Amino acid sequence: MDLKIIYLDLPFWRAEVARITLFIADIKFDDFRINSEEFNYLQENGKLKDGTLIPFCQLPVLVINGQSIAQTGGIARICGKLSGMYPEDMIEAGEVDQIIDTVTDINELLNPSMRENDQAKKKEMRAELTNHDLPKYFGYLENILSANNSHWFVGDKMSIADIAVWGLLGWFASGVLDDIPPEILNPFERLKKLYQE
């Protein structure tokens, strides 16, 4: 099987969940990272210069034997199935999916402030996120993690849900998000432990 993950040259959770899942399972793949010029081209043309289709003109994309698959959740599930890190049990699979969808929701909460050019307004938006929205969602994740009697979100072994949350938490812990302090994770002991281990 010929696998290629296409994303920008940065370690963001949307691509990392697939990359890390395949890496852990020792599944070979082409880690194809593009620059901003190539990204602009694909947004205008719906494909790379080599003709690779980019559905929805966005990344990440997983190419399997020449067939392009878009959207983080679908890509994560495919990589999870290939690696054994996505449950076969329907209920457990749904539990994994709800975590990945929540990580996506958290990511989407940040988008308006990331697009805001007025720095004062951006700072105000980030304060609202820091004081209300993000702690609420981190609390949801903390409760689900605490309710499971293992170190993981679902069952007793690592899944793509854990990798997705780990990648998201790394983004917050890195301090790269202006006006959102890395200490925002401090009240959430189980999440911090998942991230740090």
TrEMBL record:
GO BP: glutathione metabolic process
GO molecular function: glutathione transferase activity
Ranges of residues in domain GST C-terminal: 89-197
CDD domains to which the protein is assigned, alphabetical: GST_C_Sigma_like (cd03192)
Pfam families the UniProt entry points to: GST_C_3 (PF14497), GST_N (PF02798)
Domain GST N-terminal residues, every copy: 2-87
PROSITE patterns on file: GST_CTER, GST_NTER
Transmembrane regions listed in the UniProt entry: none
UniProt xrefs under PANTHER family: GLUTATHIONE S-TRANSFERASE
Protein name stated in the entry: GST N-terminal domain-containing protein
Organism, scientific name: marine metagenome
